[in-house]
Predict the structure of VanZ like family protein.
Amino acid sequence: MQNLLKNKYIAFLVLYFLYFIQFILKQVSWIQHFDFMKHKKEILIALTVLYAGFIFYLSAQANLSVPASIFKIPIMYELADFAKSLGLGFLVDIADYAHAHIDKVAHMFLYFGLGVLLHLTFKNSDHVILRKYSAIFAVILGVIYGISDEYHQSFVPGRTSSVHDLLADGIGVTIAQILFIILILMNLRRKKEDDREADPGEE
């Protein structure tokens, strides 16, 4: 009787395992046939919301600190001396400033990522105004989210809201937009040069 129950239990485990494998294979097949470009707008919105949720999660952590031990590794001092010997001491000064304000640097990097996702989301919107002024809307929404995030931190034990953190958030979002604008201008210039080469008779 015990052997029968044991065999039955094993059979159920094997059956459920096979169902699980079948489910995984169906998901893989669905991903392979999923038209990502067709659903790019929805994917970008989902990624932006998830990223914003990740920032919210970090803000909800009490006494969250950014590790700065990397700056204390011996090789970092050697790199600093090497940079100074090449006349690049200003890079060392920038690194020292980043080390002293590493939490602000972390804010900038986090909101740089948010700025990238916001820009791409607005750029792929169905609304013409949002697409045309995607950089402006990205900065506005990014700063508004930064304000709400700092307000939220004021209720978290061990965390405080800070105008300097908000400024770092805004700088991160803005840098992302500046880079996008530079890329757009470079592409326009390259396209103009290609058109000129393709039709030299216009000159």
Observations:
- The radius of gyration is 26 Å.
- The CA atoms of residues 36 and 43 lie 8 Å apart.
